[in-house]
Amino acid sequence: MTVVPATRRYEDVAVGDALPELEIPLTRTLIVATALASRDYQDVHHDPGLAQERGSRDVFMNILTSNGLVDRYVTGWAGPAAVVKRIKIRLGAPNYPGDTMVLTGTVTAKDDDARRVEIEIRGVNAIGPHVTGTVALVLPEGNDQ
Q1: Radius of gyration over alpha carbons of the chain, in Å?
Q2: What is the pTM of this model?
């Protein structure tokens, strides 16, 4: 049975609200499969030997996957009626196999006229911040659901 998350309403969100943490185990399969699924065939995302030749300790996650995980994190919190308007991220420490990335977020702004919410996000692994940035989304009003 699939459980659909409840839609978060604009009026129920306040600046300063923290999103729950999301732990993402960074398996080799996740890193390789998502790079291939996003048609990123750069060898540093699937070939450990070539990644090491290019100065990395192992294969590492591509930006398209990081972007998708940020989207999943925020929309999982917001619910299916939320509309993502912008994702603006920066990458830092690589996501290597065998680690865990922990995503956290905080509501930093609200625009009452547009029902737009801005969320600051961070994804941190054992090395440090992997992804930081903001996500802007529109949430429905109570009677829009």
Answers
A1: 17
A2: 0.91
Beta bridge partners of 123: 103, 131
Going residue by residue through the chain, which has 145 residues, state the pLDDT in tens, using 9 for 90 and above: 555 557 899 999 999 999 999 999 999 999 999 999 998 888 888 889 999 999 999 999 999 999 999 999 999 999 999 999 999 999 999 999 999 999 999 999 999 999 999 999 999 999 999 999 999 999 998 765 5
How far lies 114's CA from each of 3, 73, 83, 103, 140, in Å? Answer: 29, 22, 12, 26, 10
136/61 Cα distance (integer angstroms): 24
With H, G, I as helix, E, B as strand and everything else as coil, classify residue 58: coil
What whole-number distance in Å separates Cα of residue 124 and Cα of residue 128? 5
What's CA 104's distance to the chain center, in Å? 9
Encoded tokens for 4: 């659909």
Residue among 68, 75, 73, 67 at smallest CA distance from 139: 75
Residues in a beta bridge with 91: 131
